[in-house]
Amino acid sequence: MSAGTTGREAPGVPAVTVGPDGLRPADVVAVARAGARVSLAPEAVAAMERSRAIVDAINRDRRPVYGVSTGFGALATTFIAPQRRTELQHALLRSHAAGTGGPMPAEVVRAMMLLRVRSLAKGYSGVRPAIAQGLVDLLNHGIVPWVPVHGSLGASGDLAPLAHCALVLTGEGWVVGEDGGRAPAAQALADAGLTPVTLAAKEGLALVNGTDGMLGMLLLAIEDARHLFTMADVTAALSIEAMLGTDRPFAPELHAIRPHPGQAASAANLARLLRNSAIMDSHRDDFEHAVQDAYSMRCAPQVAGAARDTLAFAAQVAERELASVVDNPVVLPDGRVESTGNFHGAPLGFAADFLAIAAAEVGAIAERRIDRLLDVTRSRGLPAFLTPDPGVNSGLMIAQYTAAGLVADNRRLAAPASVDSLPTSGMQEDHVSMGWSATVKLRTVLDNLASILAVELLAAARGLQLRAPLTPSPAGRAAVAAVAEFAGEPGGDTFLAPAIEAARELITGDRLRRVIEDAVGPLA
Fold first, then answer.
1. How far apart are CA 308 and CA 316, in angstroms?
2. Which of 7, 214, 259, 330 could share a disulfide with 124, CB 3.0–4.6 Å?
3. 172 near 81, Cβ under 8 Å?
4. DSSP string of 302-339, one letter each residue
């Protein structure tokens, strides 16, 4: 959801040091989005020097080792003469930088580069410390390689995207210019006072053979989903209050008998958000009014809670990958250089696909509440389409169309990418993960979810305004005040798109959550 950062300045953001022990998810977000500066720990430099000594010994002995003295993929049996091994590494980057399409967001590219530094710093890749430092220099100088959106199959890792990043280290390829267009990498390096890197044996391969693009996008998506799932509880509570729903189904004892942790957390949020509401009190004992609310209201914590549990699974997968060495071959401390399959993105692809399904359903149930708020036959006394003058005015009618269109889009995007393997490289790479595609579409699903929740926020706030003179809960009052700043009071139709955009800013930012938590206490 974030537009990213150039990384040139990061005042007030703690620096991130990359050591052999790896990084925290928060470190990746800080570098990708807040422009945190990066440095290599001395322990990482020492680990890389030890593994490089092993590669240098292999290179002198002229032993056949994949990627050091042989070609790549289906060309793994082709022996490369020592005098051509530097050429081999540069040729690898040029040939693999074969992506197409528009550029990936800066935050994704920065996350990729940091994660490649993290993997190299563990000392299993056989590269000189100067290679990792080169990526660190790009990050700290705000140089963002132009990485096209299409090109990765998620095994052997994110080859094409990482090659586009690595090529910039050598003074070739493209970067994102000041105007957002493509610019020559050589000029960007010169402007920053950086010298292009000349690669030695194995270093080109070590720069491209990883899951860093997938992992970077998954970590950023997890950060966004965690916030959006809380905001989905906020908009659900506002809608339930506006539709004269009941808060009885959110009592903790009802969720203790079905002990899914996400469900309990979501129900606790809803109960907290609906406390001290004159609107809720107005019908609390009216059993003819609503013995049972519709599923989109009553089952909100069951759906949002299941999404939270899916998010917890995805976060666990991402944290494991963050602690992993993802390269091929790997240089072991005992001197062996062994081929692995650790670059295969199946764990990340599965997690991203699962999280996309969950996020799509959070949006789907929110859209059902929007529709119910707008329908005069189901909204319990609210005017049609939430306009005081229906007929001449259409109110939020078409805003619900927008939400419905986004739900339909998310349903298509929720189809798993990770089952869509295609063989490549002369059948050497005969099963690939499609993890890059899974994480790209996950980010789109979350972006769509933010817009759906923005429409629900707008509709629910309007519904609460129309319940006057009854006063909503403290959370409802805070939300109505924030929305009224740009949407005003119920009345004649106005240009609606700016109001939806402003509501989206409230959903994706932290201001609305802060004012609500100031009123009701912390939300999970």
1. 12
2. 330
3. no
4. HHHHHHHHHHHHHHHHHHHHHTS---SSEE-TTS-EE-
- Plot region of 67 (φ>0 → left; ψ -120 to 50 → alpha; else → beta): left
**Model-level pTM?**
0.95
Cα–Cα dist 51/290, whole Å = 69
pLDDT, one tens digit per residue, over 111-123 is 999 999 999 999 9
| C-beta of residue 394 within 8 angstroms of C-beta of residue 479 | no
Cβ 331 vs Cβ 124: under 8 Å: yes
CB 399 within 8 A of CB 445: no
Comparing C-alpha atoms, which of 509, 439, 433 is closest to residue 111?
439
Contact yes or no for 203/170 (Cβ under 8 A): no
Which tokens belong to 41?
């720990």
Q: One of 66, 124, 295, 401 is an active-site residue; which one?
A: 66
b/e map 37-74, b = 16+ CB within 10 Å: bbebeeebbebbeebbebbbebbeeeeebbbbbbbbee
The candidate with the shortest Cα–Cα distance to 452, out of 388, 513, 490, 408, is 408
Read off the pLDDT of each residue in 321-330 and give the average, rounded to a whole number.
93
Put residue 96 in one of left, alpha, beta given phi > 0 → left and psi -120 to 50 → alpha.
alpha
For residue 401, indicate whether it is catalytic: no
